[in-house]
């Protein structure tokens, strides 16, 4: 068995692993990259990229359905197979950036096989032994399928298989009302499917209830049936005819089931015990430096057991590179990590929600709100439903929530404000181009100072004095 000695061995070629490998090898480190599945991982092949491509097609269909003032509405003619061709084309266009050929061109040794630890400093993969100074576990996660009675014999889809459908589902039953569930529900509804979402607790239950309500109202207005507070107790059926039985004894029948109840970290079979790497069902146990119980082994992205977002994996990669490649100290502080639900309207969050901020900061908290129905760009485009909410403590934002068009783009400013510990005065003092949706953030920041400027009797007296003195 051939022995390869290297500086860094990266296990997993998703967002986090590819970022570590690309950065390390271009800085001069020897890198071995191991991937048993498809290069690019879940995000490229079954997650972020195909879902947003599908959502884009669904938006185009909905735009035709509603038209605009002076522009006639018409029922869209949806070619579902052609939509899936668009999804495949988007993946194909992005794939070369994540390809084996590119990374071998950068200087990585790429092994397309499953990796298994044989000791604290060595793995086996593809009939080869790889001994490294540092290892990075970046294996990502897989869809979690709960052990519901009947699941073994009932056909169902996950995010890994739904994009392969060429024929439009007649009635898609989505089990799970989190971001993935509601995004896929709305996209398929707009493409002509009947859709029911079943959630055992609350739809978008992790989000600020006030913002979630705006999205939920939009979903219901488009004809999506939402069933909340009901666990699924049994599945049955065959291709094209499935039944979901709920805890109250009622049932939902449809043509397809989509499982969207969460994800499970992919660590099975890696023999982490041989490497002395502590782990749980949630992932590798890491410290703030993303280092495991084996000081040679780091974990990034979903494998690190925290927030499961592609941008988090990329952020983790930079933290590991600073330590493992450059020898510099670095820690992961998740307080400024944004998240977005890509429905229409979008829902975006960074930092603390209002409820979290009230629990942590109590009376020191000030909540500022700016509504889109006062934003001229939103009014001009007929998309003025939504608002921004900013949680402020001692003049600094500790969280921001936005619901409305392009909320995912708008939240970036507040992610910067939190990570750089900017004061509200910095946002209030920026010059925002007019007319843009981005003005809502400046309006929110300005609203924080309004009581001090417009409701302060001492300031008014001072201004009157200045007006008498200045010639």
TrEMBL record:
Entry cofactors: FAD
Binding-site positions, FAD: 52, 139-141, 302
Record domain Pyridine nucleotide-disulphide oxidoreductase dimerisation: where: 337-444
Domain FAD/NAD(P)-binding residues, every copy: 7-317
Ligand binding (NAD(+)): 176-183, 199, 262
S-S bridge residues: 43-48
Oxidoreductase among keywords: yes
Keywords from the UniProt entry: Disulfide bond, FAD, Flavoprotein, NAD, NADP, Nucleotide-binding, Oxidoreductase, Redox-active center
GO molecular function: flavin adenine dinucleotide binding; NAD(P)H dehydrogenase (quinone) activity; oxidoreductase activity, acting on a sulfur group of donors, NAD(P) as acceptor
Listed InterPro entries: FAD/NAD-bd_sf, FAD/NAD-binding_dom, FAD/NAD-linked_Rdtase_dimer_sf, Pyr_nuc-diS_OxRdtase, Pyr_nucl-diS_OxRdtase_dimer, Pyr_OxRdtase_I_AS
Source taxon at top rank: Bacteria
Cofactor: how and how many bound: Binds 1 FAD per subunit.
Family of this protein: Belongs to the class-I pyridine nucleotide-disulfide oxidoreductase family.
Name this polypeptide is given: Dihydrolipoamide dehydrogenase
Organism: Tabrizicola piscis
UniProt lineage: Bacteria, Pseudomonadati, Pseudomonadota, Alphaproteobacteria, Rhodobacterales
């Amino acid at each position: 068995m051939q022995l390869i000695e290297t500086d860094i061995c990266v296990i997993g070629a998703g967002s986090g692993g590819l970022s570590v490998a690309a950065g390390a090898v271009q800085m001069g480190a020897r890198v071995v990259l191991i991937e048993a599945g498809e290069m690019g991982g879940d995000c490229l092949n079954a997650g972020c990229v195909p879902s947003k491509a599908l959502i884009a097609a669904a938006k185009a269909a909905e735009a035709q359905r509603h038209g605009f003032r002076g522009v006639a509405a018409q029922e869209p003619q949806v070619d579902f197979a052609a939509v899936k061709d668009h999804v495949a084309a988007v993946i194909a266009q992005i794939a070369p950036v994540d390809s084996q050929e590119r990374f071998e061109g950068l200087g990585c040794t790429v092994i397309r096989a499953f990796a298994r630890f044989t000791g604290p400093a060595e793995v086996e993969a593809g009939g080869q032994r790889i001994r490294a100074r540092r290892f990075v576990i970046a294996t990502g996660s897989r869809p979690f399928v709960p052990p519901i009675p009947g699941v073994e014999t009932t056909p169902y889809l996950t995010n890994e298989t739904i994009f392969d459908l060429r024929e439009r589902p007649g009635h898609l039953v989505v089990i799970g009302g989190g971001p993935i569930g509601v995004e896929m529900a709305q996209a398929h509804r707009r493409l002509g499917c009947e859709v029911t979402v079943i959630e055992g607790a609350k739809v978008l239950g992790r989000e600020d209830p006030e913002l979630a309500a705006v999205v939920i109202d939009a979903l219901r207005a488009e004809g999506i049936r939402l069933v909340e507070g009901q666990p699924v107790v049994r599945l049955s059926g065959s291709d094209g005819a499935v039944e979901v039985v709920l805890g109250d004894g009622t049932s939902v029948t449809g043509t397809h089931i989509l499982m969207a109840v969460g994800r499970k970290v992919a660590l099975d079979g890696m023999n982490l015990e041989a490497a002395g790497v502590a782990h749980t069902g949630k992932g590798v146990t890491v410290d703030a430096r993303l280092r495991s119980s084996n000081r040679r082994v780091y974990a990034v992205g979903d494998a690190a057991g925290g927030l499961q977002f592609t941008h988090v994996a990329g952020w983790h990669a930079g933290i590991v590179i600073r330590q493992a490649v450059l020898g510099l100290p670095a820690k992961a502080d998740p307080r400024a990590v944004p998240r977005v639900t890509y429905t229409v309207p979008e829902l975006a969050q960074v930092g603390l929600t209002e409820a979290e901020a009230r629990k942590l900061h109590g009376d020191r908290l000030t909540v500022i709100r700016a509504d889109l129905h006062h934003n001229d760009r939103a009014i001009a485009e007929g998309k003025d439903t939504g608002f921004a909410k900013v949680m402020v403590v001692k003049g600094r934002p500790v969280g921001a929530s936005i619901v409305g068009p392009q909320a995912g783009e708008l939240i970036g400013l507040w992610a910067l404000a939190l990570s750089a510990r900017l004061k509200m005065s910095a946002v209030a003092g920026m010059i925002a181009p007019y007319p843009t949706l981005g003005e809502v953030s400046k309006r929110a920041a300005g609203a924080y100072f309004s009581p001090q400027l417009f409701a302060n009797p001492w300031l008014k007296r001072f201004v009157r004095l200045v007006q008498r003195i200045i010639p």
